[in-house]
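Please fill in the sequence for the structure shown.

STRUCTURE ENCODING:
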């Protein structure tokens, strides 16, 4: 089974809106569809998408869902500013319902969740996607393979 943890795209700090309603900036609007296309090229397609309801995460998830031709992402308020533990608890609970789960959220939780699974400090800049291949035995998950895709690296390919 595949878990893809995605940090929201770059947000617009000049918008003057409260944190929850902060929109994506131009780079964020560019990077989300680009990341979806890169994931598609690699054969990584969501079975389900779950996102924080904060505007920047929701917009990132919606842009990616549009690129994949998927239904709109499900919103879970527990993902807004969630800790690594909260992210992984939700992920492991929801993984049983799909072969490939995309979760969209925020830092520092996303970086810590990915770092914890990979057992090494891992950078998750905006719109980064950590593709985590997991196996499950009884009630525990084991990381089999991991790949972190970052927008700047994709742009340089």
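FILLED IN BY: designer on duty
SEQUENCE:
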């Amino acid at each position: 089974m595949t878990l893809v943890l995605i940090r929201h795209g770059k947000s617009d700090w000049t918008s003057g809106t409260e944190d929850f309603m902060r929109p994506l900036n131009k780079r964020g609007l560019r990077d989300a569809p680009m990341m979806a296309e890169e994931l598609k090229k690699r054969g990584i397609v969501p079975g389900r998408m779950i996102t924080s309801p904060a505007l920047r995460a929701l917009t990132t998830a919606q842009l990616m869902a549009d690129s994949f031709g998927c239904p709109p992402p499900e919103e879970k308020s527990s993902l807004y500013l969630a800790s690594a533990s909260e992210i992984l608890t939700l992920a492991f609970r929801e993984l049983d319902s799909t072969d490939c789960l995309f979760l969209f959220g925020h830092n520092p939780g996303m970086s810590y969740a990915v770092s914890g699974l990979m057992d090494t400090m891992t950078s998750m800049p905006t719109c980064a996607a950590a593709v985590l291949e997991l196996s499950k035995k009884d009630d525990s998950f084991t990381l089999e393979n991991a790949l972190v895709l970052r927008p700047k690296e994709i742009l340089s390919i």
